[in-house]
UniProtKB/TrEMBL annotation:
Keywords: FAD, Flavoprotein, Oxidoreductase. InterPro entries: BBE, FAD-bd_PCMH, FAD-bd_PCMH-like_sf, FAD-bd_PCMH_sub1, FAD-bd_PCMH_sub2, FAD-linked_Oxidoreductase, Oxid_FAD_bind_N, Oxy_OxRdtase_FAD_BS. GO terms for molecular function: FAD binding; oxidoreductase activity. PANTHER family: BINDING OXIDOREDUCTASE, PUTATIVE (AFU_ORTHOLOGUE AFUA_1G17690)-RELATED, FAD-BINDING PCMH-TYPE DOMAIN-CONTAINING PROTEIN. Belongs to the oxygen-dependent FAD-linked oxidoreductase family. Signal peptide: none annotated. Its cofactor is FAD. This is FAD-binding oxidoreductase. Residues 43-213 form the FAD-binding PCMH-type domain.
Amino acid sequence: MTIVSASGVDTVVRALRPRLGERLLLPDDAGFGGARRVWNAAVTHRPALIARCRDTAEVAAAVRAARDAGLPLSVRAGGHDWAGRAVRDGGLVVDLTGLRGAAADPVARTVTVEGGATTADLLAAAAPHGLVTATGVVGSVGVAGLSTVGGYGPLVGRFGLALDNLLGAEVVLADGSTVTAGPDGDPELWWALRGGGGNFGVVTRLRFRLHELPAVLAGMLLFPAAQGRAVLSGYAGIVAAAPDDLTVMTGFLPGPDGPMAFLCPFWSGADLAAGARAVDALRALGRPVVDQVGTMPYAAALRMFDASIVDGNHYLLRSRWLADLSPAAADALVAGAAELTSPFSTLIVNRFHGAAARVDPAATAFANRVPHQVVEVIAAWPAQDTAERHRAWADSVVAALDPVALPGGYPNLLGPGDDTRARDAYGGNLDRLLAAKRRYDPDNVFSAIPALLD
C-alpha cells in the first residue's frame, strides 16, 4: 500500500475543488467506489483522489496539481489494462471517462475522438459513412491506450496497426502544457507516442485515418479440443501464405463441456468469393461444431467478443511473441488447454502480417515489424476462488513457449514485472525512446509499461 501524504491530498483538493466541484472524488464520497473499479475485479487499488475531467484544460490542471503536491499520477480511459495501472494506489487518477466524444469527417476520411473514447465510440461515428479504422477486438477498450502502444486487431493485415492510422494527437505534458503531436507538429513526440504509449503525457484528443469498408466476412468456427492440434497446425500453414485481406485468430475458448479450439477469420477484401474460399479452407481443418461465419458490418463483428469479459471475474494475463506457430508452440498451447484450471480461461493467438509488417521499423517507436504471432494466456476465475493455481497455470504455459519465443513482447499485454521484456520489444528504437522520455518527462510523472525511467 502506497503511503499517502495528507498534505499532498489537501494541496490537490485546494487546487482542483473550485474547478471540478463534486467531480473531484475522495474515498469517502459516494461515487468513489464505482469510479475506482475496472473490468478486472482482481484489481483492488485505492487511489487517494479521482479527478473526473471534462476537457483538456481540466486535465492540465489535474496534472499540475498532482505534480505540485508530489502525488503519484495515473490516467484512466478505457481502464482495460489487466494489471490496473489506470488506478494507481495512493495517487491521483486523471479520469477521462467523461471525454468520449467522436466525430467523423467522411470527406477527409478522418475521425477525431476525445481521450476517453472507446473503440465502440469511434466506430459508431464512422460506421454511418461505411468507414472504419484499424482497432482491437473489444469495443469497450480505450482508443488512446490501444493506439499509442500498438493496436493489434482484425484489420492489421489490410490497414496496419491502430497506431499506423493515427494522424495526430493532443497531449498534456508533465508540466501541464498542451501540445499537438503530428507530422507537422512536434515530430519527435509524434514518433515516440506511436509505440511508447502513456510514458509522455495524457492524450486528450486523437485523429485517425478512415478506410472504406462497408462489411467484413467474419465469424467463429469452434472445434472439439481433440482436434486442436490439427487446427493449429493447419492454421499455421494457411496464415503463412494469407493475403492482406485475411487475418485469423486462433487458440482455445471456453465451451459447455470444456475448452474448444477456435478459428476466427476476418476477410476485409472486396472479393467476397475469395473470402468464402479462404473460410472454407479453415473450416476443412477439422469438423466444426459451431460454424457462424457471415457478412456483417465491422462493428457488429466485434460484438462477438463482448461476452469474453465476465463482470466480477478476476483476470491475470501472460503473453509471448512467436515468429510463427511452430509445432513446439502448438504443443504448448494444446497442453495448456488440457490443463486449464478454470472454465473461464482462454488461450488466444493473434496474427501480425501484411500492411503492418511493411512499415519501416524506425518510422515509429513500435519496432517489431516482421510477421509474427502474439499469444495471450488469459487466466480468469470467479472472485470467491484463490489466484495461486490459476497463476501457476498461466506461468506454466508461457514457460513452455519460452524456448521458441522472440525477445520482447507486446507492452500492452505485459505485467508490472515485465519491464525488461517490454524494453526488449523496442529493439533498435529503445535508445531514441529513452531520449524522448528524458526530454518530455524527465521526472517520470507518467510511468507506464515499460517503465522507461527508474
